[in-house]
Amino acid sequence: MDAVISALKPALKRKGLREIVNKLSLQQTWRSDGGVPSPMNLWPRSVVGGLPIVKTTIDETADGFITQAVWARGKNIRPFYSTSANGQVLALCIRNPACSNLILEADQIHADGMPMVHYSKLFCNLPLPERVATTDLVHAVAQRAQETSVSFYFLGGSEAVNAAAVATMRRLYPNLTFAGRRNGYFNQEEEVEVVAEIRAARPDILWIGLGFPLEQLFLRRHLNSLQGIGLVKTSGGLFDFLSGKNPRAPEWMQRIGLEWVYRMVNEPRRLTLRYLITNPLAVYALLRYSR
């Protein structure tokens, strides 16, 4: 991941980042193409850590996803693009401002970290009501999808993890339709084939779990080629949790923003150094680039 981020050319200086932060809360969309028509474009945003985070709840977001997916059926337009930010993403945006440009290509950014929510309630003009974690959101959307025949597609993870994640969702939601699934082990030369497979399946919602920034880079290259799909949601490590590969932290740790501690204890070799670097940068981003 570090190599991928290093390859991104910093197209935005720190001064430019501050200027964008000052403007973001005044815009309904910040995409150059004006975004996809959606009621979700009208949701208010709070600038947290330098990113425009939508002020919404899990239930509101799930309703919005279903409405968007149903509305987009039969329309030859690109998907509505929803992504998330947590402390790691804030830190990466500080280390390499090109990451800010990358995540700002989304139509919508959720807060997938409780520290962002807590900070907004104390210091931001527009407090966030709750964390919209993808690991919780997928269940809220699935419950509604059963009732509206909205179909899913899971892209990402190893073959075993992807298959297990789909099996878990089918067990929990027997009436949920899966248009397809595919593991995330493919190179850029194979991406055109992957996109063709997804378009042929025509899912209403595409959940893409390649991790930041690979999933965002994939969508930078192919979002406009995914016409006919209602919505795409970047999902990070969602499939690892659904498959049971990675356990979730106890709810009390999630509520107070210490899920990262639980994850670090469970994966010390992979995560200890990462959090020692990213946590201070994320705190700096919150203090310096929030409104």
UniProtKB/TrEMBL annotation:
InterPro entries the UniProt entry points to: WecG_TagA_CpsF (IPR004629)
- Keywords assigned by UniProt? Glycosyltransferase, Transferase
* Domain of life of the organism encoding this protein: Bacteria
GO terms, molecular function? hexosyltransferase activity
Q: Please state the span of the N-terminal signal peptide per the UniProt entry.
A: none
Provide an example Pfam family for this protein. Glyco_tran_WecG
Q: Which PANTHER family match?
A: PTHR34136, UDP-N-ACETYL-D-MANNOSAMINURONIC ACID TRANSFERASE
The record ties this protein, via NCBIfam families, to:
wecG_tagA_cpsF
In its UniProt entry, what is this protein called? Answer: Exopolysaccharide biosynthesis WecB/TagA/CpsF family protein
Q: What is the lineage of its organism?
A: Bacteria, Pseudomonadati, Pseudomonadota, Alphaproteobacteria, Hyphomicrobiales
